[in-house]
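Hello forum,

I keep getting stuck at the same step: I have a sequence, I want structure tokens, and every attempt I make locally crashes halfway through. Rather than fight my setup again tonight, could one of you with a working pipeline run this one for me? It's a single chain of 219 residues.
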Amino acid sequence: MNNGIIIIDKPAGMTSFGVVARIRRVLSVRMGKKVKVGHTGTLDPFATGLMILVIGPECKNAGMYSKLDKIYDATIRLGQVSSTGDLEGEITDISDRQPSKTEIEQVFLKFTGEISQRPPIYSAIKINGQRAYDLARKGKQVDMPLRQITIYSLDLMSYSYPEIKIRVHVSSGTYIRSLATDIGESLGVGAYCNQLRRIEIGKWRIDQAQKLVDFGIES
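Reply #2:
Ran it on my machine without issues. Output:
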């Protein structure tokens, strides 16, 4: 713990709230009293990587950390769409056409800079006081408003159909699942995000992060 924060490398298959609960439990036992712990931005259960946890009095500054820019490594699978935008949703085949690398790079240009993005309905955004994912799971109509985001860079790291590997530097509030879906739509073949790893938040990097096992927590 450094200056009221803990930098964690979240494992796949665990919710962000699960990470917070486990760290809170360990710290409370160590300190012999209940310790307040919060996160500064969720990662989807399938995703891995950097989370900044705020401890005790630093919880009041959570919003400051959540507004920081972020960098992700992601894998986008072409030819299919997902009801959730990731590998945990209902997958539907769309197309077996194989876009060229040049075509993909041209589409990437459309998603660089300040753009409008519609967040996925399976997200933690509140709609009329309720989480969007709770409404979606109940089968209710969810109208997600567009939001302005900035994609500072979108780099194609490798392409071997049907998978595109990217590194993307984004402003706070950007959903990589929505980016994957929008890229697939622009290519006309469908796509979803099947791997996601957050590697930087502001000045903090993934190589500075501790793992849950460092706290005696089995992931």
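The radius of gyration is 18 Å. If your local run keeps crashing, start a new thread with the error log.
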